[in-house]
Amino acid sequence: MRSPMRSRAEITLGRSPEAPRRARRFVDGVCLDWRITSVTPDAETVASELVENTLRHTGSTPLLTLELDRGELTVAVTDDSPERAFVRAGGAQGGFGLRMVEQAAKDWGCTPSERGGKTVWATLVA
């Protein structure tokens, strides 16, 4: 039985091509620990896309946070760039990451962080 309390886990990922894969493994382990494996595939997609966006569009080291509260899992990536995240027109150079996040998530957004960067987040129904 799941605890009614809020659960939170986070990891700082390096600026390397391995970061999206490390993000997926982290999400997999946390979802298993929290017994919400039905949401694992979508949470892995969201996490890896948000991490990839941080690597591609900012000079920041991504901080991945997972938070479970009342049956909703929030996947969030914080970076040091004040540039807001937005859905780009897809094309040969990419632009499909946040579209994938939109499709997988109940809701998503971009919130300025206290340190001058931003947090891009998405909620999934666990």
From TrEMBL:
<protein>
    <recommendedName>
        <fullName>Anti-sigma regulatory factor (Ser/Thr protein kinase)</fullName>
    </recommendedName>
</protein>
<dbReference type="InterPro" id="IPR050267">
    <property type="entry name" value="Anti-sigma-factor_SerPK"/>
</dbReference>
<dbReference type="InterPro" id="IPR036890">
    <property type="entry name" value="HATPase_C_sf"/>
</dbReference>
